[in-house]
Specification:
An 8-stranded parallel beta barrel has the order 1-2-3-4-5-6-7-8, surrounded by 6 helices. With 298 residues, it is α/β, with parallel strands linked by helices. Helix content is 46%, strand content 12%. Strand 7 (188-191), helix 8 and strand 8 form a beta-alpha-beta unit. It has one domain (9-240): Alpha-Beta Barrel (TIM Barrel). It contains 13 helices and 8 strands. Helix 1 (26-38) packs parallel to helix 2, helix 3 (87-96) packs parallel to helix 4 (117-130) and helix 6 (150-159) runs parallel beside helix 7.
Length: 298
Amino acid sequence: MKKNNPFRGAGTALVTPFLSDGSIDFKALSALVKSQIEGKTDFLCVLGTTAETPCLSQDEQQAVMNCVREVNQGRLPLLLGLGGNCTANVCERIQHTDLTGFDGILVVAPYYNKPSQEGLYQHYRTVCETSPLPVVIYNVPGRTGVNIEAATTLRIATDCPNAVAVKEASGNVAQIEKIILGAPEGFEVLCGDDGLAFTLCTLGAKGVISVVSNAYPVAFADLTHAAIAGETEKAREIHRQLHDCYPLLFCDGNPAGMKSLLHVLGRAENVLRLPLVPVSAATYAGLEKYVATHPELH
């Protein structure tokens, strides 16, 4: 029996806004969380890739967690990024992190050391045995250097009762559809690529963890909900409104594109931490044009 999975529908992978001096902008972060709550977002992902988590100290990560918890007040389910490439270290962090107010953990595939499929299975099985909360697997081979194959994801889903979902960002639609078709009851697929949200939700994915919804929570939630509900025409219309934004968000890397879009919208400074840098002038101009020509989205 799977533990209750609160991570369905439209999820937002929150950015970490910074002030011009590079410190965390908690005012902007609080406003961002409020905009998600007041929009149609179903859950929030905290300290994931989009949050620039590797460039945040442990104290800063704790401060971000505290800020989101305080603003959220239990209104939306919270998914906490707690991955790493050493199984023992991930388990130690789970055991020593105050998970109060969080409803699950997002565990990225171990990166750099490129484990085998058996190594990936053993990693997630050990993490699931340690975690008191539901676990969402995160497959993003473009960042980790290793792909969690469909058979491995399904093996984890079958053997680990608290493995409740996979955030699939492989871009491999055939692989993802195998997971959708073969998943045990209670295990869901969450799309990890904004541009594939329409496609995967119409194929049976039950949600998305989105970047663009930092800026457009209502529109992206409407797209996701319509696609899941089989309202294909409505979902397609919103998908096409957002379609031109996606390459601008990701061509110079994530979250550089989103930081620029939030800056264009007047919601955050366009500041990242090295080794990430702001988008090119051409990309920024493209985002300005996109915002000007899509007033219906904001």
